[in-house]
Structure formats: structure tokens, C-alpha cells
Amino acid sequence: MGDFRGGQQSRSRVYNVEAADPRSELIDRAHLSERDVVQISAVMEALGRYREAEQRLSEASLKYMKLNGTDMRALHFLIVCGNDGTIATPGALAAHLHISSASTTKLLDRLERGGHVTREPHPSDRRALAISITEETRQAAMETVGRQHSKRFYAAARLTSQERDVVVRFLDDMTSEITLVDEPWAKG
Predict the structure, then answer these.
(1) Is the dihedral of CA 50, 69, 64, 131 positive or negative?
(2) Of 25, 41, 42, 148, which sits 20 to 30 A from 85 (CA to CA)?
(3) Within this chain, do residues 121 and 44 fall inside the same structural domain, yes or no?
(4) 61 belongs to a structural domain
(5) Residues 47, 71: one domain?
(6) What stretch or stretches form a coiled coil here (predicted)?
(7) Domain total for the chain?
């Protein structure tokens, strides 16, 4: 029995299929060569490293901006709306975040109190509000989180067109595989 002390080796072991499922209880790999299993484990390890880096970035940005994850997703949505000239409404924000109108109101109250957003009458619908991110918060988000996230573009730009097609197909396939449909333990 080995010693699981931590560090890079232990992190990669967590994503290694042989270590995680040695008896093939979850993954039938009888039709795969040893080389295939090693390569697939390397892909899973790379995904794990990427996920950990994303998590560290997310945690650092939340701490810097003094906001929670939903707040940050709301601000990102408002930045995109502002960039493309779309008027953001509470209803559109609720739909984007998959939260109730009551939760949206609480969210907007909190963001407005913090000086992150403004609410004004909608220019063409007197029953709605138009929500905008403040320039100070927009700049802070762009200079911190936005600048870090934009680096992903360069990683994709270094790929060939064919490689990007493979990556997109792979990520879409991974997304469809892990979508929580009809999983009783995931309902809540």
C-alpha cells in the first residue's frame, strides 16, 4: 500500500482511471489497449489540472471583488449585455442565472448597495427595469478576472483549425456525458 502525501503525483492519481476504478466497476475498459487507457487517463488528468486552475482563479477573483459566484456571473452577464447593446432586465438576468425573481431582487439589491449595478426605468417597457454594471465595477472585473479569462483565447489560438474542431467535439461530448439528467441523487 502506498503513501498518499499530496502534491502533483497524488493529484494526478485521483484522475487516473486505474487508480480510481481498478476493478472496472464504473468504466468497462476491456476493449481498450493499455496505451489507450494511459492516454485517456492523461486527458482526465489534464482536465483535472485545468479545473483546479479555474477553481483557484475563481476563488481569487471572488475574494478580490468581495462577491459570490452568482454575483460574478451576474456581472459577467451585464458586461456582455453592455458590450453588445442589449438592455439587461431582471427577468433576463434571472433566466440567465436560473434563479427566481425573488432571488434576483435580493441579488440586485446587494449589488446595488455595493455600488456594482444601477437600476433605471426601461426605455421602452414601463413595467421593466434596465440594469447596468457601474463603470468602476466593469473596469475592475475586466482588469482582473477578464484579463485572466482572456488568456484562454491564446491557448485556443495556438491550436490548428482541425485541433480546435476536435477539442470542441470532445468538450461538447464530455458536457453531454455529465449532464445530470434523471439522476435521483442530483435533484434538489
Answers:
(1) positive
(2) 148
(3) no
(4) no
(5) no
(6) 43-70
(7) 2
Query: Length of the chain, please?
Result: 188
Identify whether 117 is part of a domain. yes
Residue 43 domain boundaries: 1-54
Q: How far apart are the first and last CA of the chain?
A: 38
Query: Which residue's C-alpha cell is 436560473?
Result: 98
At 129, is the secondary structure helix, strand, or coil?
Answer: strand
Closest of 97, 68, 66 to residue 81, by C-alpha: 97
**Closest to 79 measured CA to CA, from 128, 126, 172, 149:** 149
pLDDT digits (tens, 9 = 90+) for 2-48: 444 555 555 556 778 888 888 989 888 999 999 999 999 899 899 98
Distance CA(131)–CA(107), nearest Å, equals: 12
CA–CA gap between residue 161 and residue 128 (Å, rounded)? 43
CB 15, CB 45: distance < 8 Å: yes
CATH code assigned at 161: 1.10.10.10
DSSP code at position 88: B
Q: What is the pLDDT of residue 12?
A: 59
Do 32 and 83 belong to one domain? no
Phi, psi of 120 (to 5 degrees): -135, 160
Q: Is the pLDDT of residue 127 over 60?
A: yes
Is the distance from CB of 97 to CB of 74 less than 8 angstroms?
Answer: yes
* Number of helices followed by number of strands (H, E) in the chain: 9, 2
